[in-house]
Amino acid sequence: xxxxxxxxxxxxxxxxxxxxxxxxxxxxxxxxxxxxxxxxxxxxxxxxxxxxxxxxxxxxxxxxxxxxxxxxxxxxxxxxxxxxxxxxxxxxxxxxxxxxxxxxxxxxxxxxxxxxxxxxxxxxxxxxxxxxxxxxxxxxxxxxxxxxxxxxxxxxxxxxxxxxxxxxxxxxxxxxxxxxxxxxxxxxxxxxxxxxxxxxxxxxxxxxxxxxxxxxxxxxxxxxxxxxxxxxxxxxxxxxxxxxxx
Length: 246
Hints:
Layout lengths: L6 H9 L3 H8 L10 H8 L8 E5 L12 H9 L4 E6 L11 E5 L5 H11 L4 E4 L5 H11 L8 E5 L21 H11 L14 H5 E7 L2 E6 L8 H4 L11
């Protein structure tokens, strides 16, 4: 008969798992229903042995206590030195323990978000798996992204709600105010130094979003200095061009 796995054996087994294997172990929908974990592995692997704060918006489980905090546990095992925080509209304190701590509150409330930062420090990684309502997604991003340190990573899950009116989205693919509308603005902002609008004033995200990675229903935004300079004065207008290179 198979013997029961000891705590030490379990620790040794899980410490060798990649993120997809951990998602399967803890039964989080970041793998299976979705295919997020390979993308997270690619963007977050370099942090695996770092001490930092990770904040996940949305703890899950709803009224089913046994299903709460599955992804928080996954993150705890993937990042053995990180402080793992969760924010949920419901009380999820039964998940708390060790390096995991949860907060209760509305993800669109700046006071709630600021309290987390004040008590635990600015997160290096944010995972927005909350309400998926575009207005809430945008509010959380607007408050938290400026607080991330350089090289911070902000992830928005389930962006498909941008296209679903019952979730606050729009049928019009070019509609303003959705989560994907925010993402498209960030992509344009990567090239803000090339704009020819005379009175354009770069936004905070224009200057501090270094890259935007878009996947099926998942967006990963990397923070960093995006003020590289431009050669537009030399090459943007044919009448002013003095060099054939671009």
